[in-house]
Structure formats: structure tokens, C-alpha cells
Specification:
This protein is α/β, with parallel strands linked by helices and 489 residues long. The protein has helices at 2-13, 21-24, 60-65, 67-71, 109-121, 170-175, 193-209, 228-235, 248-251, 264-274, 281-287, 316-319, 323-334, 372-390; strands at 29-31, 77-80, 84-86, 96-102, 125-130, 178-179, 184-185, 214-217, 238-241, 260-261, 305-306, 339-343, 400-404, 408-413, 416-421, 429-433, 444-447, 452-455, 463-467, 472-476. The chain folds into two domains: 2-133 and 190-397, Glycosidases (TIM Barrel, Alpha-Beta Barrel), CATH 3.20.20; 401-487, Sandwich (Immunoglobulin-like). The chain has 14 helices and 20 strands. The protein binds 2-acetamido-2-deoxy-beta-D-glucopyranose (3 copies). One of its GO terms (biological process) is carbohydrate catabolic process.
Length: 489
């Protein structure tokens, strides 16, 4: 007992209380693509042609200097690109050569420590992207000289080469190598006890050295799943894995091996629905896919990472420019059961296509804080931050579908009721009667997106003004007390 108390005290004194799932649940995450967020010189004109696939000069110092841009969007955590040393021109960070050195294109080890300290001083968390599956080699698989790697420098640390040809064969997915003759990714033999224990040692010191609060784990489906529980335990912080697969039955069971996975099944559904490729019923099916008590394998929907853009996929506006549809997808994401994640540039309505098109330099926007989507994001984060602080049940309340048609859905998540539509800007203006919202009779209800007020009728429903396909986010006025939202103090 005394020992436990002493070590708790010691960790408090060091200022490092490791962040768990419970600590992350209330957070919202801004995804920074380190090479493309901000340069140390703060330039807004430095050229960056995504097609060149070379460094554009973003740094950790650059991020640190622009933290208020992120904080004022209401985010409480920042996910950055992998930090390890890389082959030449691996500006994204996924072709590492030395796990124990940092990528000096992004700055020094002290710069990274300084970024972590600056985030913590603002009450924000640092999430670092990590890659346990592979190293990087600029050449064909048969030219790899393992001795060139700083660690894991012997052939027996890797699976023997095979080409990953059949993505439906899980053995191949885990044991074969990704890449081609321009860039090969020697595949670490993570089921080997020596490799696993070295990996455990590495992640523990990485987290400690840089005061990391959470991990985004790359290429999870390419690694044997039972590698992760001891690894995440060594890390001692929240783990969110990338399982880039839309089938719930494939993706969600990975949550049995780590705190969280990126919600790729919901990502595809959000895109289909708000790009008008499928009706609202598609969302309904997907909202039910991760429940705590089914065979789906999900442990906790409130810890999944909810997103609809990232650095690997064409941006939403690449296909659908309509701002009202973007606003619906964005509001749905921030108000969902999981931990919301926005990728840099969403707030600027960037529209880049498939990788590398979606990796535009954010500085080309001039870091404008007056765009419609900047304001929309900031308001929704402010609301989520306020409600999760004042309504203890909100974060773990599982969203209920109240009613839906092909193009309008009404949802309730505890204190918040929302209406989403994929009618788009041509959707016109009309009055919508809600169903099952269960506000109190006579209660004043505020749509936080317009500050319009309604009075709940006999059954606790309201008649809401819908306009040009915009979403609606409704809260009892009393629930906004102290938030400053819509002037409610
Ligand atoms: C899957 O791949 C492994 C390794 O290449 C192979 O031995 C096995 O036969 C494959 N299984 C199927 C069902 O194709
Ligand atoms: C390798 O790189 C060259 C030059 O950039 C490119 O033309 C070629 O398509 C690449 N090959 C593969 C397999 O990606
Ligand atoms: C962390 O710091 C220690 C002490 O300087 C060093 O030995 C270790 O290699 C570092 N680990 C990483 C992953 O940077």
C-alpha cells in the first residue's frame, strides 16, 4: 500500500500521469501532418507541391508556434506524424531506419520535448504515430542490407521475404512485405520473443522521453494481434490502432487487443451518406455495428476514433464541395460516440485527392481563423467540451436513432439531440417536426448552430426550421449554462 502511494506520489512529482482510455474519452484530436503544418519560419508562402513527394519543411517548432490555432478550434489533443529517423525524403514518416533517433527534418529531440511541454501547458495531449510493423529501405527487397539499420540489424529480426499479394489471406497480410522496388518495408518479426521484447523496451522509453500521452499505431492489421497487449502495456498510455478496413467484423475485434481503433467502418458510411451515395439507413446500420454486447468484438464505442478525412485518403470535398454536406459530416463526427478526429485542412475546406493530393501544406491557407468551417468546428468542439464536463453520462451514452427517412436522421446522445441531412444546399427551407426528443414540455431548446430558439411541445418535441441542408444540434437552454454558447452565461 505504502509503495503504491509512494509511486503515485513520485509520478505526480515528475508531472507525468500516464493517460488512459478514460482520460482520452473526453478529448478531441487534431491530426497534424508534421511536414505540412507549419515551418519554423512561420512562412505562409513557402512552395509545397504535393506531387513531388518531398519535404516541405514543417517542424515541431512550427507546430509549437501555432498551437493556439489548434486550441482555438477547441481541440484538446494533437496527433503528429511518426517521429523516428527515416530514409531520405520520407516526409510522411512511415519509412523508418532508426527507432532511437528522431527525424531531424522535423527538429531535434529537444524540440519534440518542448512541443510536448507546450501542449501540456495548454492542457492538451500529445499523440504520436508509431510504426511497429516495418522499417524502410529505398530499393528492392533483395538489396536490403540489414546492418544499415541501427537496431533490428539482422535478417532474423524480420520475416523472410514474400510478396503481399492476397490481402484476404491474413497470414500473408501479417508476414509478407509491403512495398515495391522503389521502397521496400522490411517486415519486423513481431511474434519473435526477442523482437517483441526489444519493441516493448523501445516504446516504453519513447513514451517516457517525450512525455507522450497516446499512440496512433500504424498498419495494425499487418502485425500479429497478440503483439499489442504487452506492447501497449509497456507504453502505459492510450493506444489507438489503424485497421484500414471497412468491414466491422474485421476491424472492431482489434479493440480486444488495444484501447481503440480508428473507426474505418463508420468512416466509409459517413462518406457514402453525406456524399449522397446512400440513404440514412446506411448510418443506422453502422451506428449499431459496434455495441458493447454483441459478437462484433467491440469493447467500447466511446473510445473509437471517429473521422472522415486523413492523410491516406482523398478529402471529402475532393468529391463533394457542398458546404452544407461537409457541415453535416463534420457535426456528425464531433457529436458521435467516439473520440472525434479532424485532419489538418478540413477547417479550411481543402479538397486534395488521393494520397499524396490530400497532403497540402496548411500554411497555404494563411492559418485563417475566419473560414465557415473553422467557426463550425470551434463551436461544435466547444459544445462537446462543455457538455462532457457538465453531463457525466454524456460520453458513454450510446447514440440512439430517434427516427429517420432516406435523407434526414434524428439522433439523441444524452443532452444533445441532432438532426442531420444529406439534402445538400438545394434542400430548401421547411419546418421539420421532431419525434421522440423528450425535452421537457415548455422547455426552451437552442439550436447551437444558428442560436435559434424553440419551445418544446406537449410531448417534448420541437418544430425545427431546416434551411439549405444545414444540420441542427439541439440542447435545452439550461444545459448551456456557463458555456457562453449563443450568449448563454
Ligand atoms: C495464406 O498464405 C500462406 C503464406 O503464403 C499460405 O501458406 C497459405 O496456404 C495461404 N492460405 C490460403 C487459404 O490461401
Ligand atoms: C518507381 O519510381 C519511379 C520514378 O519515380 C516511377 O516512375 C515508378 O512508377 C515507380 N515504380 C513503382 C513500382 O512504384
Ligand atoms: C530515451 O532516453 C534514454 C536516456 O537518454 C536513451 O537511452 C534512450 O535511447 C531513449 N529512447 C528513445 C526511444 O529515444
Amino acid at each position: 500500500m505504502q509503495f503504491v502511494l509512494l509511486s503515485a506520489l513520485a509520478s505526480l512529482i515528475q508531472g507525468g500521469a500516464a493517460a488512459s482510455g478514460a482520460d482520452w474519452r473526453s478529448r478531441s484530436i487534431y491530426q497534424v501532418f508534421t511536414d505540412r503544418f507549419a515551418r519554423t519560419d512561420g512562412s505562409t508562402t513557402y512552395p509545397c507541391d504535393v506531387k513531388n513527394n518531398i519535404y516541405c519543411g514543417g517542424t515541431w517548432k512550427g507546430i509549437q508556434n501555432k498551437l493556439d490555432y489548434i486550441k482555438n478550434l477547441g481541440f484538446t489533443a494533437v496527433w503528429i506524424s511518426p517521429v523516428t529517423a527515416q530514409v531520405t525524403e520520407a516526409y510522411h514518416g512511415y519509412y523508418q531506419t532508426d527507432l532511437y533517433s528522431v527525424n531531424n527534418n522535423f527538429g531535434s529531440a529537444n524540440d519534440l520535448k518542448s512541443l510536448a511541454a507546450a501542449l501540456h501547458a495548454k492542457g492538451m495531449y500529445l499523440m504520436v504515430d508509431v510504426v511497429p510493423n516495418h522499417m524502410g529501405w529505398a530499393g528492392c527487397h533483395d538489396t536490403v542490407n540489414f546492418q544499415k539499420f541501427a537496431h533490428f540489424n539482422k535478417p532474423e529480426h524480420y520475416h523472410s521475404y514474400c510478396e503481399l499479394a492476397d490481402m484476404s489471406n491474413q497470414t500473408e497480410v501479417e508476414k509478407c512485405w509491403i512495398g515495391n522496388c522503389n521502397m521496400t518495408m522490411p517486415d519486423l518479426k513481431t511474434e519473435d520473443p526477442h523482437v517483441a521484447s526489444e519493441m516493448n523496451r523501445w516504446i516504453k522509453t519513447l513514451v517516457a522521453n517525450y512525455s507522450i500521452d497516446g499512440l496512433r499505431i500504424d498498419s495494425v492489421k499487418n502485425v500479429n494481434a497478440d503483439f499489442f497487449p504487452p506492447w501497449c502495456q509497456s507504453a502505459g498510455v492510450f493506444c489507438m490502432g489503424e485497421v484500414s478496413e471497412g468491414r466491422p467484423g474485421y476491424t472492431y475485434p482489434y479493440q480486444q487487443y488495444m484501447d481503440s481503433v480508428l473507426d474505418y467502418p463508420l468512416y466509409y458510411a459517413i462518406k457514402r451518406v453525406f456524399q449522397r451515395e446512400s440513404p440514412m439507413s446506411d448510418l443506422v446500420v453502422n451506428l449499431a455495428a459496434c455495441t458493447q454486447d454483441t459478437d462484433a468484438g467491440c469493447r467500447d464505442a466511446s473510445l473509437l476514433g471517429t473521422f472522415f478525412e486523413n492523410h491516406d485518403n482523398a478529402r471529402f470535398p475532393a468529391a463533394t464541395q457542398d458546404l452544407s454536406l461537409v457541415k453535416n459530416a463534420l457535426a456528425f463526427t464531433i457529436m458521435s460516440d467516439g473520440i472525434p478526429i479532424l485532419y489538418q485542412g478540413q477547417e479550411q475546406h481543402f479538397s486534395g485527392g488521393d494520397d499524396p493530393g490530400c497532403r497540402e501544406a496548411l500554411w497555404s491557407s494563411g492559418y485563417s481563423t475566419t473560414t465557415p468551417l473553422y467557426a463550425h468546428t470551434a463551436l461544435l468542439n466547444q459544445l462537446r467540451n462543455h457538455i462532457s464536463a457538465t453531463h457525466p453520462a454524456y460520453l458513454t451514452y450510446q447514440t440512439r436513432v430517434l427516427t429517420y427517412t432516406a435523407d434526414v436522421i434524428q439522433l439523441r446522445k444524452d443532452a444533445i439531440r441532432s438532426i442531420f441531412t444529406n439534402q445538400g444546399a438545394q434542400g430548401g427551407s421547411y419546418t421539420l417536426s421532431t419525434q421522440g426528443m423528450e425535452f421537457s414540455k415548455g422547455e426552451t431548446v437552442v439550436d447551437v448552430l444558428t442560436c435559434s430558439e424553440y419551445v418544446a411541445g406537449e410531448k417534448g418535441d420541437v418544430d425545427v426550421r431546416m434551411e439549405r441542408g444545414e444540420p441542427r444540434v439541439l440542447v435545452g437552454k439550461g444545459g448551456l449554462g456557463g458555456s457562453g454558447i449563443c450568449g448563454v452565461d
